[in-house]
């Protein structure tokens, strides 16, 4: 009986990796997600990670604009991101800023964004803040 109890206790841990290989956060049609190589930085621990080369080309372009300091195509680019959904680590207001990732064919800003933190953190959302992926270096 103890062996059966121990087996049942361990079974969910064995199945967990199979359950965690879900969708790629809204850009699965553009490029399939694959695990980022290397060790994730402390700010990305516990989050799904993605490398820049796994992002849609428009997101890579937005990251280049951020690195250069602009110019940005949308007036709201660079504004404070409130993290009202609490999907990113909690920080004081003003810590995060958001930038539009254009969506081909969209008549408005679309749902894709890059969110930056004050310490070089970069996050991608392809579904308007429902899910985030930490953008890490390989």
TrEMBL record:
Residues 1-22 form the signal peptide. Residues 21-44 are annotated as: Disordered. It comes from Streptomyces mashuensis. This is Ribonuclease. It comes from the Bacteria. One of its GO terms (molecular function) is RNA binding. The keyword Nuclease applies. Keywords: Hydrolase, Nuclease, Signal. Pfam families: Ribonuclease.
